[in-house]
Design a protein that fits this description.
Blueprint: H1 2-15, H2 22-45, H3 51-64, H4 69-82, H5 87-100, H6 104-125, H7 132-216, H8 223-252, H9 260-267, H10 277-286, E1 291-296, H11 304-324, E2 330-336, E3 340-347, H12 369-379, E4 383-388, E5 394-401, H13 407-415, H14 438-470, E6 472-474, H15 475-480, H16 487-493, H17 499-502, E7 517-524, E8 533-542, E9 545-555
Length: 556
């Protein structure tokens, strides 16, 4: 029972898709009654005696048209071929099927089967005696106009609505993406500021701390001067600590952009490069540090990103050496290899200073220096290695390829914030794509249907003229034919005949002679008939000869 109930619920939901709000229920009920009543009225006018069955069937089909568009179209086509009442429903069913059947070949197949049913039911009811070509042409013309044209227009409307909905959703998506782009660009800038603050200000504060520390142990200073220098050193240490905290906050809020730091740094114009390393070393020497700068290999021009990365790596290495190994000798070496620039900064173990500063505290470290250096090197296609040496010192070495930058990093360096923009917002000229509008297919279908209908109309006019001539006998020809003439000779004289025009004359007029078979024609040229009356000529044959030639008046 549960399976039956589930199947029933599924069938109901398929046939009557919701939601069924009160307003829709009332509207569907009113329209169903109107369509059913109109179909019943047409059947009453045609005296078919099927007004109630056809009216009820049309009302039910109207309610089911949304959930079962293909089934409703087939049923309506079969009913419309039998009677005139369901013809308005055929127009509505064609419209709905064109709008709701998504697959093109399913739609074409449904309409093909519908036309077959429309033709078959019409042939069974009224057109048994007609020519097959005439039956096919008339049914095709009626079905194209009554079902296919509304279907094409309904499909055009549905595709246009779907296209507008897709464009509206795309616009909303682009707006959301633009908001995300702004947010990501803001995070990117915060990360860039954090990295620059760490690299530049951190290095300068480290030099201040080293200078003040050296002055603090100078025996030539008075106690008051030494106290002032201590305050200066403590202020520098506090500034470094606050700087690390700010950098940490900015960096933590930008963790969603893992490659931003390197790309921003890579895209920032070099403020020193390898040419500025001499000034960087001189400023450290002025603070009392012992630094040796050496270069090996044939010097060559460097890309801006590689040049800037080399400068920042040396700057960060000197800052770390000043903080963690004050007073230790430092060696800075640049080696121009055939395919890469090797930057190496090493320092020995920090010496034990006599009269070391009391309360100096541990060196302030934010943990971002080496991470930023590795990111810088990665974005130019290089790598960084850092670690202690066997002599209890520290070594930092970086390998920076001359032309090894990753494509993503190069694009990021060149475009800045634009590399975060989605494809739909990129200011890049893309080749124009020709998009076929849904209206084109519908317009071609309408044109094809109109051409077919016009062709059928022309063919129908020609067929009507020929059929009229074949079914008409002129008065002089009628007068020339004599009773007793051989049937074959009479048939050669008479037109071919056409049952479509003369079938209603059968059974009219005087009784047919016993054992004879007759042919009926419209007699043209005989006076005396009223506006609704026709002159009929009847020729009856028996035993291969004309036994009767009769002229009479029949109502049209």
């Amino acid at each position: 029972m549960e399976a039956i109930a589930r199947a029933w619920n599924t069938a109901v939901r398929t046939a009557l898709p919701g939601p069924w709000r009160p307003r829709r229920v009332v509207g569907e009920a009113v329209l169903a009654l109107l369509m059913g009543g109109f179909a019943a009225l047409l059947e009453l006018l045609s005296n078919s005696g099927l007004a109630v069955p056809f009216g009820s069937a049309v009302a039910v089909l109207w309610v089911l048209r949304r959930g079962l568009p293909g089934t409703v179209l087939l049923a309506t086509a079969a009913l419309a071929g039998w009677a005139v009442g369901p013809m308005p429903m055929l127009v509505c069913a064609g419209w709905t099927a064109g709008a709701r059947i998504r697959r093109v070949w399913s739609l074409v197949g449904t309409f093909a089967v519908g036309w077959v049913l429309f033709t078959a039911t019409g042939t069974v009811k009224d057109f048994v005696a007609l020519s097959p070509k005439l039956v096919l042409s008339m049914s095709l013309g009626f079905f194209l106009v009554g079902a296919v044209l509304p279907a094409l227009y309904g499909r055009y409307r549905a595709q246009r609505r779907a296209l507008l909905d897709a464009l509206r959703e795309r616009n909303e998506q682009l707006l959301r993406e633009r908001v995300m782009v702004v947010h990501q660009a803001r995070l990117r800038e915060r990360h860039r500021i954090a990295q620059d603050m760490h690299d530049s200000l951190g290095h300068q504060l480290a030099l201040i701390s080293v200078h003040s520390g050296a002055l603090e142990v100078d025996r030539t200073l008075t106690d008051r001067q030494r106290e002032a220098v201590g305050v200066l050193r403590q202020a520098a240490v506090s500034a470094m600590r606050e700087l690390r905290e700010v950098v940490g906050v900015l960096h933590d809020e930008s963790t969603a952009l893992p490659s931003t730091a390197g790309s921003a740094a890579a895209g920032t114009p070099a403020r020193g490069g390898v040419d500025g390393l001499g000034g960087l070393v001189d400023s450290s020497r002025a603070a009392g540090a012992r630094i040796d700068l050496s270069q090996e290999g044939e010097r060559r021009p460097l890309p801006a990103a590689v040049d800037h990365a080399a400068y920042r790596i040396v700057q960060e290495a000197l800052t770390n050496a000043h903080k963690h190994a004050p007073g230790a000798p430092i060696a800075v070496a640049l080696r121009y290899e055939p395919d890469a620039l090797v930057v190496e900064v090493t320092n020995t173990r920090a010496p034990e200073l006599v009269g070391a500063r009391v309360g100096a505290g541990a060196a302030v470290s934010g943990g971002q220096g080496l991470t930023g250096l590795r990111e810088r090197a990665r974005l130019v296609g290089g790598m960084v290695h850092a670690g202690p040496t066997p002599e209890q010192g520290f070594r930092l070495a970086a390998v920076l390829p001359y032309e090894g930058a990753e494509p993503e990093a190069a694009a990021a360096a060149a475009d800045g914030v634009e590399d975060w923009m989605p494809d739909g917002l990129q200011p890049v000229e893309e080749p124009e794509r020709r998009r076929r509008s849904p209206a084109v297919g519908c317009a071609l279908g309408v044109v094809a249907v109109v051409v077919i209908v016009l062709g059928l109309l022309v063919w129908g006019v020609v067929a009507l003229v020929r059929g009229t001539n074949d079914a008409t006998v002129q008065q002089p020809m009628y007068d020339q034919i004599r009773t007793g003439t051989a049937e074959s000779e009479v048939l050669r004289t008479l037109p071919r005949g056409n049952d479509f025009f003369t079938d209603t004359y059968k059974g009219t007029g005087p009784e047919v002679p016993a054992g004879a078979h007759c042919r009926w024609f419209v007699l043209n040229g005989a006076p005396g008939a009223g506006w609704n009356e026709d002159h009929v000529a009847r020729f009856c044959f028996r035993d291969g000869a004309l036994v009767e030639k009769l002229e009479y008046i029949a109502r049209g």
